[in-house]
Amino acid sequence: MTLPPTRFGVRRRAANDWHRATGLDMIRKLKSGQFRLYSRKKDESKGKRRNLGTFDLLQKARQHDREVQYFKRR
Q1: How confident is the model at residue 72 (pLDDT cuts 50, 70, 90)?
Q2: Spatial CB neighbours of 23, under 8 Å, sequence gap ≥ 6
Q3: Whole-prediction pTM value?
Q4: Which residues pair with 27 in a beta bridge?
């Protein structure tokens, strides 16, 4: 998928946009300013995503997401 060029050259899509476009970005910013990590799959019984933690910094939420994914594939 290519993006149209801009006046200043080729437009590049940020990694965060890719995650949102593919539905893999499960970190959401709350009104309080904190970030919450949700599971990628919905819980079958409730139909909602599981809360995997709330963090003050986006970096901490991303780190925890990497740790969860590593543990799942171990």
Answers
A1: confident
A2: none
A3: 0.64
A4: 37
Strands 35-42 and 49-55: antiparallel
One DSSP character per residue, 37-68 reads: EEEEEEPTTTSSEEEEEEESSHHHHHHHHHHH
**Sign (positive or negative) of CA dihedral 29, 32, 33, 38:** negative
Backbone angles phi, psi at 22, to 5 degrees: -90, -5
9-62 pLDDT, tens per residue?
555 555 556 555 555 578 999 999 999 999 988 889 999 999 999 999 999 999
Residue 49 CA to its chain's centroid (Å): 13
